């Protein structure tokens, strides 16, 4: 795993000082502590920080072709590089290394952008073609690896793996984009079609950007998309067998490494499945690690220990205090943008534990999105069935009136929160789902924002991207549309950002076998009943895993990493909650009295504002860091 950065002048090819690129890559040193390199020519420069994983001696970057016409830097892994290498060798390519990086050079020469469709991996790459005077930037299908870019005042295009790489360039202005604040307050993260810093863009997942000398910067081109509109045919037994093959292949392909490799093991279905399939494929005990909590309601170590015993893994456990919030500033530095998924605290800790013994760790991320594992999918599907029974013209009046009259009960489990359900039924399905995945409601945001914020964003709302995406999704069913939208927004913006930044912060490569694109494309074709049945998500996946995992693992309630942020703001962080109303960074955009009110109401137990206060705390720290 690595960090990349560079500069390109589409107009006049101005000279670039290598020291400028070195400063940008030095800001990414945590992504690649094993080596660094810079290559520069008139109007173009590429930089790299290396975390050596494959071909430790021969895979240094930037890497040039034998004739010097092509140069590339690359962040990620190409899991099928040996198969692609064999295909290229048959076409006459001569290889000088055993690295996956060199496959990109020969692949570009043979196929151009069509090379991407042949790659199975996670990647963000930059490739300079001197003959065509083109800089080619590309990102993997799911958006596992990040890539940010910006047009600078001197005409250059700067790019980097992380925002901090761009901020190392003196021409990048440290101005916040107010729409990104709205996005963050709505969703809890700054999504992949937005950026915290004004002017910065993120190359979307499954897109490439082809920059040419003498031409204006074009829009990114989508080279891959997920299609939920087709349906697989076959019996449950046949589809189970096909799914099993996909799972085995995905895990085995991600076990290729020239450094120690292991896995995260939470004791849930997804990480247990990965460990089971790794154990099946490995001659040595799989190295596994688990974070335990000192609070029983948050702790899953007994389930992880059962899986470790079942598959005879080399297992390590570290217990941490569930009230440990000392990592807040560490996370703010790692993410650059405000990030409110509090499970990042535990993710960072398990990554740090893994890095003590391995350089690569496999995770179970992606299965919930692919196989409908989240509870919100079940709720959304049920709500859509009810909406289908009541004419649209009546829904708003009937359900909206009932919902407004019903007592508010934030403290109750969602099935018992009739007010929330009734108000959701009053809305269009896309708008209701956008609320379900959101954090702070539009109504509360409206009260929190100050006049400057209201003027800056106008009618813009962060949830609208979900509404638009679901309306245009290649899908047949309400569940399809919700999953598709999560693949476009939630997965790259929250889950994959969380894993990338926390793992890279400790120089660990995290791999997600359950996001193998062939597995994901197969899952998208499954009939709804094989994803969600009888209120049970991941129905076919759990059926496929029965030979490996016991029922108490497959069918126990989902826990995940839970962080008691609400209790923190009534206890150890109560003073910090109160201090938010005096923050000059927040008061540029928020109303002082509104912040004071939610902090007081939360502390007194009159309302539940823990997640919103956590958002404001993370935003305050991020704004302070951006200001320098």
CATH topology descriptor of the domain at 2-175 and 194-222 = Glutamine Phosphoribosylpyrophosphate, subunit 1, domain 1
Name of the level-1 CATH class of the domain at 2-175 and 194-222: Alpha Beta
Strand content: 5-15%
The strands making up the biggest β-sheet line up spatially as 2-3-1-9-8-10
Structure description:
Among the domains are: 203 residues, Glutamine Phosphoribosylpyrophosphate, subunit 1, domain 1 (4-Layer Sandwich); 169 residues, 3-Layer(aba) Sandwich (Rossmann fold), CATH 3.40.50.620. Helix 6 packs antiparallel against helix 20, helix 15 packs across helix 18 and helix 18 crosses helix 19. It contains 28 helices and 19 strands. It is an alpha+beta fold and 628 residues long. Strands 2-3-1-9-8-10 form a six-stranded antiparallel sheet. Strands 4-5-6-7-11-12 form a six-stranded antiparallel sheet, covered by helices on one side. About 1% of the residues have low confidence. The radius of gyration is 24 Å and the shape is globular. The longest helix is centred in the last third of the chain and has 28 residues. It starts with a strand and ends with a helix. A hairpin with a 4-residue loop joins strand 6 and strand 7.
Summarize this structure briefly.
This protein has 628 residues and is an alpha+beta fold.
List the helices and strands and how they pair.
Layout: E1 2-8, H1 18-26, E2 35-41, E3 44-50, E4 63-64, E5 70-78, H2 81-90, H3 100-111, E6 121-129, E7 134-139, E8 148-151, E9 157-160, H4 163-167, H5 178-187, E10 201-202, E11 207-212, E12 221-222, H6 236-253, E13 261-264, H7 269-281, E14 287-293, H8 301-310, E15 314-320, H9 328-335, H10 344-355, E16 360-362, H11 367-371, H12 375-389, H13 392-405, H14 418-426, H15 429-437, H16 442-448, H17 451-457, H18 464-471, H19 478-505, E17 509-511, H20 517-524, H21 528-531, E18 532-533, E19 536-537, H22 539-544, H23 551-554, H24 565-568, H25 574-579, H26 584-587, H27 592-604, H28 610-627
Parallel strand pairs: 13-14, 13-16, 14-15, 16-17
Antiparallel strand pairs: 1-3, 1-9, 2-3, 4-5, 5-6, 6-7, 7-11, 8-9, 8-10, 11-12, 18-19
